[in-house]
Amino acid sequence: MNREQQESLPARDTRQWRKEVLMKAFDIEFYGGTKDRLIEDLVEHSTEKYSYIVTPNVNHVVQLETDRDLKRAYAVARHRICDSRVLLPLLRMLKVPVEDAIPGSTLTAELMNIAEQRAWSVTIIGCEDDDITRLRERFPNVTFHHHNPPMGFIDNDEAVQACLSFVVEHPSHLVVLSVGCPRQEILAHKIFETDQAVGIGLCVGASINFLSGKLQRAPMWMQRCSLEWLHRAYTEPRRLVGRYVRDAFLIMPILVREFRLRQSLFMGGAPR
Questions:
Q1: What is the pTM of this model?
Q2: What is the tally of structural domains in the chain?
Q3: Looking at beta carbons, which pairs linking 91-94 to residues 24 or more positions away fall under 8 Å?
């Protein structure tokens, strides 16, 4: 980073500096608060104009290097929450003061319990009908609206429009997007751009499959030991093992570049 770029940064130790410099890594401005405060914020705004959260992990960081649509979706998200206990130590190595990882599956489960207590409406994009049947049995007070787009929908204008229309026509407190990255984030951004939707969008991948019981989360001891990725690789080897190996190689040069950038941002040393 040259002198001119450094001089354009916000004054050190200001709120703007914390937001734009301290909490930012991999060109992602991370949420730095607690899970409880996050849930309070999402509940508070669940009846207002639509906004959405994204849940960065190592795979997302790798994809953000080349996917401009994903990058645009990330830029306007309400919060960018570290979802991964694999990404978390990398952030700590870079001295980004993220309090803890907040897995999307954990967040979705807690919000769904609130939805049950308050008899909310929840729109789900993605997942199979049997998942929704199980959710209706588990959360009888929740009104579920479900639309499952076809494979490859994100490249089909009519299929995308069907998703947008469904969300707008079924106002809900939560809009759960469960169609995988980067499709769910791009769709979340397109919903935002309609300027007609309400509620909180959650880009949370397989979280609905965990809630319905179709997939099982790792035992708690594995979650605490940051080994949930290993459990998922064991239970879904064909889908995940190759991705994990590829991401492990691709993240290394990105991490080195980010470390050097943050050294230059903090004038020769990472923040303490």
A1: 0.88
A2: 1
A3: 91/25, 91/30, 93/255, 93/259, 94/25, 94/258, 94/259, 94/262, 94/270
pLDDT tens per residue across span 35-75 = 999 999 999 999 999 999 999 999 999 999 999 999 999 99
- Structure confidence at residue 97 (pLDDT): 92
Separation CA 145–CA 86 (nearest Å): 33
With respect to residue 81, please indicate whether it lies within any of the assigned structural domains. Answer: yes
Residue 233 has pLDDT above 80, yes or no: no
Comparing CA positions, the residue from 42, 32, 169, 39 lying closest to residue 97 is 32
Place of tokens 């939707």: 197
The string of DSSP letters for 133-162 reads HHHHHH-TTSEEEEE-PPTTGGG-HHHHHH
Query: Residue 11 in 3-state DSSP?
Result: coil
Q: CA quadruple 43, 36, 178, 61: dihedral positive or negative? A: positive
For residue 141 the two structure tokens come to: 């007070």
The answer to whether residue 7 is domain-embedded is no
What digits encode the pLDDT tens for the residues 176-195? 999 999 999 999 999 999 99
How far out from the chain centre does Cα 152 lie?
Answer: 21
Q: Does the residue 10 lie in any domain?
A: no
Domain containing residue 33: 16-263
Give the single-character DSSP code of 17. H
pLDDT at 89: 94
What is the distance between the alpha carbons of residues 122 and 173, in angstroms, rounded to a whole number? 6
Q: What's at 185, amino acid-wise?
A: E
Within a domain: 232: yes
